[in-house]
């Protein structure tokens, strides 16, 4: 049975992969995702892709490397923004 959390995790991993960040299931736990970024362009491209995919807008103060402290943290942040209705403008 696929839960909402599992579905979200799969979608986040797909966006990361589209931006050149490949994380194995073994690495997905507490791995610091910021180690995977090669430069700031890749970082910002990933942020924009996540916003587009999930229809959310990250607050400027949330867009930093701490945001990518783990895959779980990233998923929790996205879920919270969706619940808050922090949506991208139409």
How is this fold's topology laid out?
Blueprint: H1 4-18, H2 40-54, H3 71-84
Helix pairs in contact: 1-2, 1-3
How does this model look, in words?
This protein is mainly α and 90 residues long. Helices cover 49% and strands 0% of the residues. The protein has three helices and no strands. It has helices spanning 4-18, 40-54, 71-84. Helix 1 (4-18) crosses helix 2 and helix 1 (4-18) crosses helix 3 (71-84). The longest helix has 15 residues, at 4-18. It is globular.
Concise overview:
With 90 residues, the protein is mostly helical. It contains three helices and no strands.
Element-by-element helix/strand order: HHH
Instruction: Determine the structural class based on helices, strands and strand pairing.
Output: mainly alpha
Helix count from the secondary structure assignment: 3
Q: Main sheet, how many strands, which sense, barrel?
A: none
Low-confidence stretches: none
Average pLDDT rating: 87
Amino-to-carboxy terminus distance: 33 Å
The 3D shape can be described as: globular
Strand content: under 5%
Helix content: 40-55%
Q: How many strand elements?
A: 0
| Cα radius of gyration in angstroms | 12 Å
